[in-house]
Amino acid sequence: MEEQYILANLAENVxxxxxxxxxxxxxxxxxxxxxxxxxxxxxxxxxxxxxxxxRGIRKSEIKGPEDVRCVDVHPAALTGDWQRYAAFLLYHExxxxxxxxxxDRTFRNLEALWPDEEARAMGDAFGKHLRRRxxxxxxxxxxxxxxxxxxxxxxxxxxxxxxxxxxxxIPVKNx
Length: 175
Fold this sequence. Notes:
There is one protein chain. 24% of the residues are buried. By secondary structure, this protein is an alpha+beta fold. β4 and β5 form a beta hairpin. The strands form two sheets. A three-stranded mixed β-sheet has the order 1-3-2. It has a three-stranded antiparallel β-sheet with strand order 5-4-6. It has five helices and six strands; from the N terminus they run αβββααααβββ. The protein has helices at 2-19, 83-97, 105-111, 117-120, 123-134, and strands at 37-39, 49-53, 68-73, 137-140, 147-150, 168-171. The chain is elongated and about 55 Å long. It is 32% helix and 15% strand. α1 packs across α2.
């Protein structure tokens, strides 16, 4: 239940921040607060957040927040150091909820208006964090020590892209 509280607070802060972005003044930003919020599965590694639309509505028909069923955020983003990134994720998904369904130039320009530049850049690190957390094996280069988190053993079939040396399988000790 604490996750839901964190998520609600983040959403409220994001909507307030969005009301102060002049380029969004003509959009129904205040309606975003009514969108139900949820969380993705804990074991998701590629998806950080998603805007789910009402059933039967095509993306080309999306007009605004009333066409959105819910916005789900990865639960790991709601913890500690990742909460700033979670706020950016909500902003990103709220832009989708406002009718910007693609990731075209217009969407990217609006996305770039989020005031926390550092949070906007946290996506790669968060993705690596999720993959590392889910890994059962690290394919490791014995020469340059480059690690590749994986769920299966490599069994000597793969080489380091940098050194061209066969990667070694090291089991991950997850808590």
